[in-house]
């Protein structure tokens, strides 16, 4: 796998990562993992790879944009000394252009600000960890003509470009969602096109695990 034994993997992002986690709990405790893809990944690693002893940490906060991550990066990432950091951010950076019609323009995260801030986070982290995984933000939307999806694709392109520039793994979660939506309705995965339901979270968790080299069918080393 992309992650080594006896290491800490920290996931950071917005509500898609948060999913009702207990902020007061010790990082890595069951109730600190939330009820979404992060918890599912932790469960899979614990059940299928017990010999790896992977500690998973959830530092998602609902409503966050990349600028919010920057404000708490030292406390919520660097101070916890993770071995790997997985970043999933961008949907709120885009969504605010559509759901905040009267928001002052300076409060919006433009593409340039998004890229510059994201790169700063990478610069602050890359020498202190074994690996950084860049996860594409995503929407559950079939129509390629949807204005918000079109805007999101520009931010996805930034994340992919940063991954290539910094030689980091890029997990294209939008491609996974799009492939599913060729077969089924988006409502099986999300009620609002943004927040996954349990089905959606499992789809995302499975995609991330696959990118990490996880194998559900592997035989235990003790068998």
UniProtKB/TrEMBL annotation:
CDD domains: SGNH_hydrolase_like_2
Coiled-coil positions: none
UniProt GO molecular function: phosphatidylcholine lysophospholipase activity
Domain annotation SGNH hydrolase-type esterase: ranges: 11-201
Gene3D superfamilies associated with the record: SGNH hydrolase
PANTHER family for the chain: SGNH HYDROLASE-TYPE ESTERASE DOMAIN-CONTAINING PROTEIN, THIOESTERASE 1/PROTEASE 1/LYSOPHOSPHOLIPASE L1
Protein name stated in the entry: Lysophospholipase
Organism: Enterococcus alcedinis
Upper lineage: Bacteria, Bacillati, Bacillota, Bacilli, Lactobacillales
């Amino acid at each position: 796998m992309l992650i080594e034994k006896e290491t800490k993997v920290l996931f950071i992002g917005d509500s898609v990562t948060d999913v009702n986690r207990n902020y007061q709990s010790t990082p890595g405790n069951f109730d600190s993992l939330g009820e979404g893809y992060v918890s599912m990944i932790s469960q899979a690693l614990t059940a299928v790879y017990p010999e790896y002893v992977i500690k998973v940490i959830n530092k998602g906060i609902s409503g966050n944009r990349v600028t919010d991550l920057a404000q708490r990066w030292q406390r919520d990432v660097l101070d916890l000394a993770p071995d790997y950091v997985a970043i999933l951010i961008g949907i709120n950076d885009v969504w605010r252009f559509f759901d905040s019609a009267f928001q002052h323009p300076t409060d919006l995260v433009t593409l340039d600000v998004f890229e510059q801030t994201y790169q700063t986070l990478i610069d602050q982290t890359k020498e202190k960890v074994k690996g950084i995984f860049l996860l594409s933000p995503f929407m559950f939307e079939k129509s390629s003509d949807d204005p918000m999806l079109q805007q999101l694709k520009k931010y996805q392109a930034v994340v992919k470009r940063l991954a290539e520039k910094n030689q980091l793994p890029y997990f294209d979660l939008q491609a996974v969602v799009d492939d599913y939506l060729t077969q089924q309705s988006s409502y099986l995965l999300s009620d609002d096109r943004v927040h996954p339901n349990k089905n959606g979270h499992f789809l995302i968790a499975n995609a991330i695990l696959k990118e990490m080299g996880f194998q559900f069918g592997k035989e235990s080393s003790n068998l």
